[in-house]
Automatic annotation (TrEMBL), chains A, B:
Record-linked SMART domains: HTH_LACI
Protein name: LacI family transcriptional regulator
Pfam families per UniProt: LacI, Peripla_BP_3
Domain of life: Bacteria
Cited Gene3D superfamilies: 3.40.50.2300, lambda repressor-like DNA-binding domains
Keywords assigned: DNA-binding, Transcription, Transcription regulation
Coiled coil: none
Residue ranges of every copy of the HTH lacI-type domain listed in the record: 4-59
UniProt key word Kinase: no
GO terms assigned for molecular function: DNA-binding transcription factor activity; transcription cis-regulatory region binding
DNA sequence: TTGTACGCGTTATCAC
DNA sequence: GTGATAACGCGTACAA
């Protein structure tokens, strides 16, 4: 059983293919209402659905949206095991679908480029999470594909940016620890890179420290990667070499989990001996034992909003809105931070 | 700057579009080697990439693979926040890309069907995780789209199945607890449905119980949904109403997390007071505190293998292999099970 | 090697 | 106002 084409419908209806097309698109100015009804009935009966490829060719729009997320170094896999990304994708996909778009989820092979993929698949737009080398962005500008950037501080009006105030978040987390009486506060974090969110969170950390007139000690900054493993390594270091540290701000929840884990393994109690605050509030954070105190952002909604704005750009709506959108941030107090005695 | 088409290349090369097409596809029998070289050079220079939509139309293959995963009840979102699915997708996507396929990630709106989507997008194949109403599968058979089923016991040779021996896994987990001296063993689980994995794990549980000549007590089976929340609810019940239960087999790691959490909240110690074993070994399980003892399957690899077999079906390789593939299972001992004193 | 028809749907043009 | 005809978008594959 092969799928019906527009011609099949036309034949059955005794009209031209063009008429069917008009009926499909509701062009009442081209076909009378009653024939539209009749054609629609036949479309139902045959269960005819227009082919996206054909449409993509003629209308030059694929109804396909790409999504770019970081990959493992080998370039082999998307890092979806990081719940932060998968929760976001969940939000993106739902919203796209609501508007009749579909999501193409693909990484990039060694030596190939996402830009080529976008061109070949005729992507109507793309959402990028994280930051990439500058030239990466340029290509999209040249061929004029609408792009929404999530969690990036790339300053270019071509792109729409969705994010949070990471500096403030970093400040909030650190200030919270300070208010609880801590003064020697470690920072466990992924790579601090220009235009990235981590840099801003780091800046917020420093601001809070300075504002409290504490000494900013670079030795207390444990920077490497946004991973559980790095959290573990840093936690171990802290337990062994920096017993004066009584609180830790981890710039991502996964990192916080790792830190807590190795701290506990080293015989430290969280939060009794050492407090830990995370960032993001991934789903897992409330399930963790002890439940993680963290800076919360609504990840799924962030994705949905990014999708919504991308569609707006594509459909060229009014969209003279700001091209940077900041989502709110809250602190959620759970069980990993305690007042210093 | 608009993208070059095959005609642009042809014009520059001073040949016909057909020649370019042949050059692209390496048809040395149709075009001389030297012109192929020359054309390829020009393709490089212009950075020409063939359009997937056009190809899809004429070759009737989209190089697009669909993936079906369960959705929230509102039909609004994919449940990607369940790491089990996202890890699997990671494995699937990587393998597909290796073979030149891309992944279309989409849920289904209320009142629409995945089958229609598959037809409209001309999907070359699809991977389905979990189980669905029977009619769901029939459509794909009719239009002859290759399908790989992950974690399903649907018995139909049209489909290729990738899974594990869930009955054995359930047996293994339960037997492990029994060997540790436990006899009152609770089962906390998602819905037990025909042809689903949970049913088999449940059967394995019963087999181990009976084999040990223990009494199978239906009251010890806490069945609802494969969620953290249900784990919590069940853990609470156990702590309050079934103090004689000294060990729990949770048929999914997320459920185990929930159970442990509420057990701990009720003042029980894991594993001192009560042991818990999970199933799947999602990434999070080794990060959990205490690290979860669980039945391990290689989730990412499972996805990769499913992708590989799907491609095999599509490309019609030799593939007279078995059409059911069972991946190995191991038990990983961490810190949530203890010998009963 | 090349011209050309084709796959499917859209839209501008033309006829009644 | 209703409708049909035909050209087009891009790449492929057959006949010439």
């Amino acid at each position: 059983m092969k799928k019906p084409t527009i011609k099949d419908v036309a034949k059955v209806a005794g009209v031209s293919a063009a008429a069917v097309s008009y009926a499909l698109n509701g062009r009442t100015d081209k076909v009378s209402n009653e024939t539209i009804e009749r054609i629609k009935g036949i479309i139902e009966t045959l269960n005819y659905k227009p082919d996206f490829s054909a449409r993509s060719l003629v209308k030059n729009q694929s109804k396909l949206i790409g999504i770019v997320i970081p990959q493992t170094e080998s370039h082999k896999q998307l890092i979806l095991e990081n719940p932060f990304y998968s929760e976001m994708i969940s939000g993106i996909e739902g919203k796209l679908r609501e508007y009749g778009y579909h999501l193409l989820l693909s990484g990039v092979n060694q030596g190939e480029s996402y830009l080529d993929l976008s061109i070949q698949r005729n992507l109507d737009g793309a959402i990028m999470m994280g930051i990439y080398p500058e030239q990466f962005y340029d290509g999209f500008k040249k061929i004029n594909i609408p792009i929404v950037l999530i969690d990036s501080y790339i300053n270019d009006n071509y792109f729409k940016r969705i994010g949070i105030d990471d500096e403030y978040g970093g400040y909030l987390a650190t200030k919270y620890l300070i208010d609880k009486g801590h003064s020697n506060i470690g920072l466990v974090t992924g790579a601090i890179r220009k235009d990235g969110v981590v840099e801003k969170r780091f800046l917020g950390y420093k601001r809070a420290i300075r504002e409290a007139n504490f000494f900013y000690n670079p030795d207390y900054v444990f920077e490497e990667s946004m991973s559980y493993e790095h959290g573990m390594a840093a936690g171990q270091l802290i337990a062994k070499k920096f017993p004066e540290i009584t609180a830790v701000f981890a710039t991502g929840d996964m990192v916080a989990f790792g830190a807590i884990r190795s701290l506990v393994d080293q015989g430290k109690k969280v939060p009794e001996d050492i407090s830990v605050i995370g960032f993001d509030d991934i789903t897992m954070s409330k399930m963790f034992i002890p439940p993680l105190t963290t800076i919360r952002q609504n990840i799924t909604e962030k994705g949905a909003i990014a999708a919504e704005h991308l569609i707006n750009m594509i459909q060229g709506g009014v969209e003279q809105e700001a091209n940077e959108i900041m989502l709110p941030l809250t602190i959620v107090e759970r069980a990993t931070v305690k007042v210093k005695e």
